[in-house]
Structure formats: structure tokens, C-alpha cells
Amino acid sequence: MSVRWQSGSWRRAACAAALLLSGLATGCGGRADEDDEQATRAAIAAVKVSPGWTALPDAQRRALDVLLSGQDNPWSLGAREAVRDLVEDARWSGGAAAQAALLDGLWRDARVRPRSVATLGLSRATHAPYTLRPAAPLGTVELEGVATALERHVLVVDGRTVHIDAPAGARTDTSDGTLLSPDDAARSIAGLPRGARDQLEAMVLVPFKNPRDDAYAKDLGMPGFRTFMEGRSSGKVLVFPRVRASVDPVDMLLHEVAHVWSLRDLDEEGWRAWEEAEREDGHEVSTYAATHAREDLAETAAVYVAMRARPGGAEVRAMFGARFRLLDRWTPSVD
Ligand SMILES: [Zn+2]
Question: What is the SS3 assignment for 204?
């Protein structure tokens, strides 16, 4: 299930999700919620007068301040829950250095840092008007080393065409997971903000798992890693069968579009600036972002685009400010 932004603030959305998942009959906002909120406030107050808080570098303290006081973004929602455990941790009484380490660790708590930002439901539910023309056969094409019969669907959106190449007959059920249908692919592309969509030239729906997955799993230290999408500097995005229904195709596309432009446009100096900004911010938007600078850029850029003009957007900018300032410079027309 994906918690959509449109269902209200993150707090209300998470409350609704928790109720659905637990099957509880009571509503949110009752006595238990008030007690929870009081316990959270007490924990935050205790943190902010602690020697560990004072020992933190200024920038890290400012970012943590936003993380703990934010009300309308998923990172803060998780942190407000995690901070209560933190002040009860036995190590909290171990002095300033121990407290600073625990506070820094808050960014890596599983309740604060998602596995991937594509599971957060950041994207809008709306999409631009589009038409998908009837498919024409492409014949048998070598696709990732496998001869595959493909057909070409032509998507027209904003007066531009984007090719969607799909297995002939558009099978979506494969032994490696569920492949997006050409219709779903078209709707996902139309769901991107226009500036992001303009980076995309073509999508190829591949009916088997990425042959590079085993190598990626080893490189990333993530056993069983499976690619959902893979963006190329040519503006083409390969889409493989999906194994996690919680991963939103539009959010994943935002990540891939960031790969497209960064692979194509960013030079060595740009990457150095990005790595410097990463160090300055001191924490990542997701666990996956922590694996490599290029994934950090793709994950952070997806958040940057999705959170523009959103409630909570200013909170997120204050947490990942050095990177957001670089993206301001690099992507003036992204949305
Ligand atoms: Zn990536």
C-alpha cells in the first residue's frame, strides 16, 4: 500500500495507514494520541538541553532541529517516534559524546530513513493529458542479450512523443515479477512533472530480470537486489518486472530521470561539488542513497522535485539544504 500525499498531511496519512494495517476500529486523535504527543515533546525537550545536543556541529544541530520539529514530512514523522526510544537508551546516560553519536544515528534509524524514496508515495496522483497510439510491431530485437519480439507504442504528451517499446502481446505476468503494461507505463510518464518528463526519450519494458542484478547485489552489499528501472544517458529508461508493489513507478521514474541528466550533463567538478554537499548535509534521504554518490543524487533529486510546492517542502529543504541548493543551480527548469 502506498500512502498518498493527497490523503492529507503525513501525520494524518500515517495514522490512516496504521489503522488500516492494524485493523483497529478506533480513530486517530484520541487520548492515546495526546499521550503519545506529550511523550514525544518531552523527549525532544530532553534532547535539546542535553550535553550531546550542544556538542553537535552547528549545521548538524540545525538539521536535527528541523527533523525533530517537522510536522509534514515522512522523515520527521519517523524521527518523532524514534526519539522517545533514544532518550531511554542505556547509552544516553554515557555523556556528551555518546549522546551526540546517538543523535547522529537517528538519521539511520529505519523509522526515519526509508529503504528507497520510491516507497514514500511522494508523487502527485494527477497526470498530464496524453494519448497512446496503437502499437506497431518492431520485429525481433536483441534486448539485453536476449532475442525478444517487441512492439512500439507511441505516447504523445505535451506535444512530444515518447516511445514505449514492449514485448509483443504486452504480457505483464512474468516468472520474474510483474511488468508494467504499456498503459501503466504511459500513465506513469504522464504523471511526471513536465521538466522531468522532458528528459525522457523512450521506455523499454523488459520481460525478464536485469542480467546485471547479481553484480549489483554484490557491489551494493544488498543480497537479492532487483532492478525495477535503469536510466541511461541517452534518455532511455529500461523497466524490468517489479517485485515490490510498494515501489511507486512515478517516484522511481523521478529517480531514473535524475540519472539521465546527471549521467549526461554532470562533469567531474559537478560530482565533486555533490560529494562536498553530501558531507555538509551529513545524512541521506534513504538507505539506497547511502550506497553511492550517483544514487544519492538520484534519490535526493527525486525528493527535490516531488516536494516542490508541497506542504513540508521547506522542512525537507532545511534538512538536505546543501544538496537542494546545488539542484536549484543545476535544474532551473525541472518543474
Ligand atoms: Zn539509481
Answer: strand
208 Cβ contact partners less than 8 Å away, ≥ 6 residues apart = 144, 146, 174, 175, 176, 240, 241
Of 131, 137, 171, the C-alpha closest to 155 is: 131
CA of 271 to the centre of ligand 1 (A): 15
Helices vs. strands in the chain: H and E counts, helices first: 14, 8
Distance 26 CA to ligand 1 centre (A): 40
User: pLDDT at residue 10 above 70?
Assistant: no
Task: Tell me the whole-structure pTM to 2 decimals.
Answer: 0.86
163 CA distance to ligand 1 middle (Å): 21
Q: Which residue has the higher pLDDT, 94 or 332?
A: 94
The pLDDT score that the predictor gives to residue 2 is 34
- How many angstroms separate the alpha carbon of residue 268 from the centre of ligand 1? 18
Residue spans of the domains in the chain: they are 5-112, 122-335
CATH code of the domain occupying 122-335:
3.40.390
pLDDT of residue 208: 95
Residue 100 CA to residue 128 CA, distance in Å, equals: 47
Q: Residue 15 Cα, ligand 1 centroid: separation in angstroms? A: 30
Residue 18 has pLDDT above 60, yes or no: no
Q: Give tens-digit pLDDT for 118-158.
A: 988 888 778 999 999 989 999 999 999 999 999 999 999 99
Q: Ligand 1 mean position to 161 CA, how many Å?
A: 24
256 CA from centroid of ligand 1 (Å): 6
